Amino acid sequence: MIEENPVSLHDAPSRPMNMIEAINDALDIMMARDPDVVIMGEDVGYFGGVFRATAGLQKKFGKNRVFDTPINECGIIGAAVGMAAYGLRPVPEIQFADYIYPGLDQLVSEAARLRYRSAGEFVAPITVRSPFGGGIFGGQTHSQSPEALFTHVAGLKTVIPATPHDAKGLLIAAIEDNDPVIFFEPKRIYNGPFDGYYDRPSRPWKGLPGSQVPEGYYKVPLGKARVVREGAALTVVTYGTMVHVAEAVLAEKGVDAEIIDLRSLVPLDIDTVEKSVEKTGKCLVIHEATRTSGFGAELVTLVQERCFYHLEAPVERVTGFDTPYPHSLEWAYFPGPVRIGEAVDRLMKD
Amino acid sequence: MAEGPVRTGKLRGNLPQLELYVPEPRYRPGDTVDYTHLEIPEPGLLARPDEACEASETWPLTLDMIRVLGDDDRAVGPWNPGLDPETLRRMLATMALTRAFDDRMYRGQRQGKTSFYMKSTGEEAISIACAHALAADDMVFPSYRQQGVLIARGYPLVEMVNQIYSNRADPLKGRQLPIMYSAKDYGFFSISGNLATQFPQAVGWAMASAIKGDTRIATSFVGEGSSAEGDFHAAMTFAAVYNAPVVLNVVNNQWAISSFSGFAGAERTTFAARAAGYGIAGLRVDGNDILAVYAAMEWAANRARAGKGPTLIEHFTYRAEGHSTSDDPSAYRSAREAEDWPLGDPIMRLKKHLVALGEWSEEQHEAMDRDLAEQVKAATKEAEKNGILGHGLHHPFHTMFEDVFEELPWHLQEQAEQAIRERQTKWPEWKE
């Protein structure tokens, strides 16, 4: 593989993109750079994917490297493991994260364990892309956030971008990574960031922070969080869509919060979280996924274990409820401004 | 016109209650066994279609049974691969070596040298024929009873024993249950304990070979029991859709631990017949007849390599011993089943064939067995120098945390430090 270090991303020519365009650009670049990268999944070929993430790639790189698959997630991931054993670097798409479960055994028992069980003889450098999360009236089977299932598995990395800039850089890093990566794309923010106020008009990415995407090859390293906003009063730890919701709510409340976008859950940038909580003394964890045994439980525990003597208030978490994602009551379920606001008020009352 | 919606549906009337059918094997412990219900054709009767034929032309072969070696110990018919005596003797010796190895490792487990073992007794022909019919660098995605492939490909016995003993020379660093080998240089994929997962992986590997314009093909094995897994369907569908250069094998040894083949659907049709629904070529073969197995494998391999697509092969055989050292088959099946198995023993059948050809003798066979037993014993002794399970000679402690990821992340680093602290308390005398 060619090693190129972009001298400075700030100097690189860039253009505004939405998250789909950024993902498509990352795939395009990696397909061109590495002949071992192949893309497969339901509807990803000629049609270019139901969210258009692979649009144009089959035409450009041929059916041998970008192809449709049967509707069989076990087969998609299982075949990807076999392709990886051959020496390819597959990038399968699972059309919705909600559909990933038939492929779970192949991910958990096979891809994740292969390096360990073969003592490094075989590896599974697979990047499984999958749109996840709600806020699009997808009902219970097109809205789930199952990231905690994957962070619980030894041997899997879990990556979740929150901006077009990061989506491209993280996806390139994920594809080049020699371990299996679950790359969850928050589909609510494919076309524009979402502030959680569902009754306000949605905004496109263009012109907004994170939408200016450098051209060409660059990586955003896995395991390095992004401080979205520096602050002194409260640390907010979150990822994906909720980064933008948190930003809007905290701005509305006028709280000088430090907002951390984790970008990858495994590996986790615990240093950035620790330093921030030590500074602010207060911590709020936010995710859209269900509450019990969610990744928030892990984060709250880590903060408690590592920052206890700096804490001035109990660590709070704001999450989705422990129900399936309801269709008509989507905005009652979604951990939006009211739920976050309550938690912020509790944390800031002294 | 009725007003409003009308509920539609037939009146059922007075009908008998439905009953659930739960399959039951014919024989249980203590029963005498009668195999007259098994349809075992005379050898040599089935036609051998062209390797490039339409998949549907193989339909009769999925319901019948390809056999080459007859009761008169002669090889007959169009499926006779016509192997030279030297190759036959090598196959015989490799089957016998596999059995000798199994016997010794079984005893080793009983002597407490390891935790677990799985024999392939009675099924040796399938693995050894596979290794002979394929190219040395064709990729095998095995289940847990294809040790014969490794042995036939010349993988060192001592490495196998090191793995089984989980000792300090175990190539898999003591991480895997015994017999879950991995041998990339021998075209042998890492064995999973989860069943049938290797089937779609083999198809993916074969697809990759086709994507790259390679000439290598893949093959994989599942038991008839785990052919019930969804992975089987995934593999068959992908293999059919992409015309993948892969040979998919179902080793029908009649038993999945204590569940007979009826729990995988054997009472309804053959396992080979499943190929037809996918539009894949299918063959059903006498799995205890190494010449028939070789011929079927060769047919399927040639077909795959010529770009004519995948083949499903059912190997009809019998698991002559327990599922594993943790199993007691006398608790659920008649001991007469193995003794009376009408397809005989694969080693005996090839031996008698060679004797009938005038290419082998009882004396040679006995001498070979003694020699193989010595060979296994020597490998075992050599491996024991590297330790046996639970006696302190294993890979260094820190290897426990390696290879989870390519690089050690902070949380595993912290846990490794914890493990080393615990070690100082638990085993203060520890040296490595």
From TrEMBL, chain B:
Cofactor dependency: thiamine diphosphate
Keyword Oxidoreductase: yes
First-level EC class: oxidoreductase
Source species, domain of life: Bacteria
CDD domains for the chain: TPP_E1_PDC_ADC_BCADC
Residue ranges annotated for the 2-oxoisovalerate dehydrogenase E1 alpha subunit N-terminal domain, each copy included: 16-55
Tagged with keyword Cell division: no
Keywords, in A-Z order: Oxidoreductase, Thiamine pyrophosphate
Pfam families, sorted: E1_dh, OxoDH_E1alpha_N
GO aspect biological process, one term: branched-chain amino acid catabolic process
Record's catalysed reaction(s): N(6)-[(R)-lipoyl]-L-lysyl-[protein] + 3-methyl-2-oxobutanoate + H(+) = N(6)-[(R)-S(8)-2-methylpropanoyldihydrolipoyl]-L-lysyl-[protein] + CO2
All residue ranges annotated as the Dehydrogenase E1 component domain in the record: 94-388
SUPFAM superfamilies, per database record: Thiamin diphosphate-binding fold (THDP-binding) (SSF52518)
Molecular functions per Gene Ontology: branched-chain 2-oxo acid dehydrogenase activity
PANTHER family listed in its UniProt record: 2-OXOISOVALERATE DEHYDROGENASE SUBUNIT ALPHA, MITOCHONDRIAL
Similarity section: Belongs to the BCKDHA family.
Descriptive protein name: 2-oxoisovalerate dehydrogenase subunit alpha
